What we know:
The chain is an alpha/beta fold. Helices cover 32% and strands 9% of the residues. The strands form two sheets. Strands 1-5-4-2-3 form a five-stranded parallel sheet. Strands 7-6-8-9 form a four-stranded parallel sheet. Helix 6 (103-113) crosses helix 11. The chain is globular, with a radius of gyration of 18 Å.
Amino acid sequence: MGDQARTGHVIAPNTLRAQRSDVVLLDVRQASDADAPDLDAFLTGHIPGAIFVDLDVDLAGVSTGTNGRRPLPGPAEFQKKVRQWGIQVDTPVVVYGATGSAAPARAWWLLRWAGVQSVRMLDGGLDGWVANGGELQTGATQTQLPESDFDIRPGGMPVAELTSVPDFAARGLLLDARPAAKFSHPTAPGAGHIPGARSVPVAESLDAEGYLLPNAELRKRFVGVGISESDEPAAYCGTGVAAALEVLVLTVLGIRAHLYVGSASEWTADPSRMLEQ
């Protein structure tokens, strides 16, 4: 199942070069020095024809202070976005961002949750595209696909609700996708994890150039924390972005994983729910 699952969710730069005219490209760029969308980077250079996607405006709903910093958008609101991007249920979509960024995985997850059948993330990100001879376009994208009439079908990807998180943790199936220093560090402000969680930093699933590690190496990482192909773990992070990449990695391995969208930002909204070192 390895190669087929991998190519169904991740696309190599050279493959994208050959197929670019047939796909909708979504650029989900985040500033490297801030947890915020980076439109300036998009305007400076993007894959020709790509549409800029704002992580906070397009891929998240309204935060109430208790539902996490980046909750799911409402189905009606997200359907408007999907239609504006010209995406139908069977439209091939490729999402990408800065190399090593988890932001495009949030778009991958949401589109699959909404029922889009073919969504892949660009392996190696934008640097991988350029390193493999891909050209860049500056300024705003001028051509857009006609608006679609796609009716989204929420539920295409499993979600871990707040009330189910303790059960995942009790069964050893709650994975923290953040860096190890955020999981547990006695002197780092804000460090700590949901009780019972296991640390599996998603950044370590990528090599130094931002490409996904071979399946055998990825599988070894999860086996090391007790996760097998028959398990259905849940992943969380700070705001449900890095965890979406963790879910993508698990999906590549044929493991059905739940995304805890609210993540630590929802968990800690109630003072009775504490993080532990």
